[in-house]
Automatic annotation (TrEMBL):
InterPro entries: DNA_glyclase_Znf_dom_DNA_BS, FPG_cat, FPG_Glyclase, FPG_N, H2TH_FPG, Ribosomal_uS13-like_H2TH, Znf_DNA_glyclase/AP_lyase. PROSITE patterns: FPG_CAT (PS51068), ZF_FPG_1 (PS01242), ZF_FPG_2 (PS51066). Its EC number is 3.2.2.23, 4.2.99.18. It comes from Streptomyces yanii. Binds 1 zinc ion per subunit. This is Formamidopyrimidine-DNA glycosylase. It catalyses: Hydrolysis of DNA containing ring-opened 7-methylguanine residues, releasing 2,6-diamino-4-hydroxy-5-(N-methyl)formamidopyrimidine; 2'-deoxyribonucleotide-(2'-deoxyribose 5'-phosphate)-2'-deoxyribonucleotide-DNA = a 3'-end 2'-deoxyribonucleotide-(2,3-dehydro-2,3-deoxyribose 5'-phosphate)-DNA + a 5'-end 5'-phospho-2'-deoxyribonucleoside-DNA + H(+). Residues 246-280 form the FPG-type domain. Its cofactor is Zn(2+).
DNA sequence: CGGCGATCCTGAGCGC
DNA sequence: TGCGCTCAGGATCGCC
């Protein structure tokens, strides 16, 4: 599933293959894929048609392409199964093709939004003065953004009355971290997911942030190699799953640091993977976690 | 209003 | 073999 590094690879692909092109015919094949465009699919198509794509941008897992004079943008989120593909027009439709965007040129390729589970989608929004689509104004900068404020992040953690993994997944604090990267960064920092953020020292939160950046950069280095290949294909698939993960998905397997069997615990309708030896549960909290 | 649980969706995988 | 259950998960909404 696409997380920040995969989305960045898609952004680069978009920049290479669709920036500067003018939109022609647009087809919405599944209404759920444009549900965030509140004015509906007819309006979505109208807003997009005839627009010229600017430089592709990203914040966290959100992607957007400014339209024409930068007053509005085409915003995209891949959800958990979304893909943006640049395909030759005569390529057969993918089974889960949701949106087709053709261009008013002779290049012969089109942009396709393909999404099995339809958690993702595309929409058109006005931009704020910062050039950000207005609906994502509340999304914090991501840790790979040079303007990310480490000190402010630490202060926010201290003020929150929540646990560290929840905080990592909180878009208003830090964006782009998903379940996999959260578990990996917590393992590297030897932090239990239920640790209250208010107990984190400044060095510990700095270490955590460093590990978040490390796992993302490692994944980016992997995924960044594939988009440039011979096929005209902007694809969010990551090489990251070929890498050995240290925490995610490793239930009952030995910890790469100490050999203790890794554990999986239900967490927020999903799972948390951790080493019970390296990542001790907080004493004040759920003792059997 | 901050925190948190429920919810959306579909296919893979697994147990019986 | 095939049915039905569980799981995967980001972001949003509504409730306390």
């Amino acid at each position: 599933m696409p997380e920040l590094p995969e989305v960045e690879v898609v952004r680069r692909g978009l920049d290479r293959w669709v920036t500067g092109r003018t939109v022609g015919e647009v087809e919405v094949l599944h209404p759920r894929a444009v549900r965030r465009h509140l004015a509906g699919s007819t309006d979505f198509v109208a807003r997009l048609s005839g627009s010229r794509f600017g430089t592709a941008m990203r914040r966290g897992k959100y992607l957007w392409v400014p339209l024409d004079d930068d007053a509005s943008s085409l915003l995209g989120h891949l959800g958990m199964s979304g893909q943006l593909l640049v395909q030759p027009q005569d390529t057969p439709d993918e089974k889960h093709l949701r949106i087709r965007i053709r261009f008013d040129d002779a290049l012969g390729t089109e942009l396709r939004f393909v999404d099995q589970r339809t958690f993702g989608g595309l929409s058109v929004h006005e931009n704020t003065l910062d050039g950000l689509p207005d609906t994502i104004a509340h999304i914090a900068r991501d840790p790979l953004d040079p303007a990310f404020d480490d000190a402010a992040f630490h202060s926010a953690l201290r003020l929150r009355r929540t646990t560290v993994k929840r905080a990592l997944l909180d878009q208003s604090l830090i964006s782009g971290v998903g379940n996999i990267y959260a578990d990996e960064a917590l393992w590297r920092t030897r932090l239990h997911y239920d640790r209250p953020t208010a107990t984190l020292t400044r060095p510990k939160s700095a270490e955590l942030l460093g590990h978040v950046r490390d796992v993302m950069n490692a994944a980016l280095a992997q995924g960044g190699t594939s988009f440039d290949s011979l096929y005209v294909n902007v694809n969010g698939e990551s090489g990251y799953f070929d890498r050995s993960l240290d925490a995610y998905g490793r239930e009952d397997e030995p910890c790469h640091r100490c050999g203790t069997a890794m554990r999986r615990r239900p967490w927020m309708n999903r799972s948390s993977y951790y080493c019970p030896s390296c990542q001790r549960p907080p004493r004040t909290n759920t003792p059997r976690a």
